[in-house]
Design a protein that fits this description.
- The structure is a single chain.
- By secondary structure, the chain is an alpha+beta fold.
- The protein has two domains: 176 residues, no CATH class; 96 residues, no CATH class.
- Helices cover 41% and strands 14% of the residues.
- The chain contains ten helices and nine strands.
- The strands form two sheets. The chain has a six-stranded antiparallel β-sheet with strand order 2-3-1-4-7-8, sandwiched between helices. The chain has a three-stranded mixed β-sheet with strand order 6-5-9.
- Strand 7 and strand 8 form a beta hairpin.
- The radius of gyration is 21 Å and the shape is globular.
- The two termini are 25 Å apart.
């Protein structure tokens, strides 16, 4: 059963709009845009065209993905209309990791041209991967995972970029120095690719639980809190060398059922240190030890 659930709290509309106005004051000469990842609207027959959004996928090799393309919305410098557009988008995107806001020296067309070569990134073994930087689960990773010249490839004309974080609050993205030369192409080495995969694992676990075990997700915890439980689970698994997906799901299930106290259980520490459960049998061991 599919549920509309991501590890993100409802958006604090007042706080975000206030922050937007502060940012406009700080960058009065910039062009302002809202970036929306419409992949989260896929198959919901939602049309935001009335707000003037333009697809970011304009090149021939990526146009077939147009139904899930990020869309860029111009905030034209008129405070009342800007706030109205942003307010509509904030409400539409609430509880989903799909909205960020940026100021740039570039026009909409110039910004879309700058991004066009970088929707695809490349690996050392020649793979071509879609970089979904409009997804605000991905966007916060990029300043630290990408090299400065790679991040500059996306941001050299950007003066400010903030997104709605998992708590529903505005969070700023760090940008590179203005004199950083942008990379011609973004090529990820094994370390960078591994880091992106590792940092995405908590969301992968959450998606699995939502799809297959929704009843274990605590109804009395905020969505951001549930995500933090799963992020802590991933850290625990990595620290103890647990690679089995089944065992990671067992840990995630236990964390959801017992809350943050799970991680401070001394018997859990002992069991993980011993590491003597059968393949994919950690869940049964946790039950046998009355840890869950």
């Amino acid at each position: 059963m599919s549920h509309f659930y991501f590890g993100q709290n409802p958006t604090d509309l007042t706080r975000v709009l206030d922050y937007f106005q502060q940012q406009i004051t700080a960058y009065p000469e910039a062009y302002w845009f809202a970036l929306v990842d419409t992949a989260f609207d896929h198959e919901q027959r939602v049309n935001l065209d009335y707000l003037g959004g333009i697809s970011c996928y304009r090149s021939l090799d990526i146009e077939p993905l147009g139904d899930v393309a990020p869309r860029l919305f111009a905030l034209d410098g008129h405070p009342s209309s800007d706030l109205d557009i942003l307010k509509r988008l904030l409400r539409h995107c609430s509880e989903r990791p799909m909205l960020s806001v940026l100021a740039a020296d570039a026009t909409m067309s110039e910004l879309l041209d700058q991004w066009q070569p970088h929707h695809w990134v490349y690996t050392a073994d020649g793979q071509k991967l879609l970089l979904r930087f409009a997804d605000t689960r991905v966007l916060p990773m990029l300043p630290s995972v990408l090299n400065p010249d790679q991040w500059a490839a996306l941001t050299s004309s950007v003066r400010s970029w903030f997104y709605i974080d998992r708590t529903g609050q505005p969070s700023i993205c760090a940008l590179t120095d203005a004199d950083t030369t942008p990379a011609f192409q973004i090529e990820l080495d094994a370390r960078q690719l591994g880091t992106l995969v590792d940092r995405s694992e908590a969301d992968t676990l959450l998606d699995y639980l939502v799809q297959h075990m929704f009843d274990v997700i605590p109804a009395d915890a905020s969505r951001a809190t549930v995500y933090e439980l799963l992020a802590s689970t991933c850290t625990l698994a990595q620290t103890n060398g647990i690679d089995s997906w089944t065992d990671k799901v067992a840990l995630a299930t236990a964390a959801c059922l017992t809350g943050s106290a799970f991680f401070s259980n001394p018997r859990l520490t002992e069991v993980l240190a011993e590491g003597d459960w059968p393949p994919n049998g950690l869940g049964e061991r946790l039950v046998a030890e009355s840890i869950v």
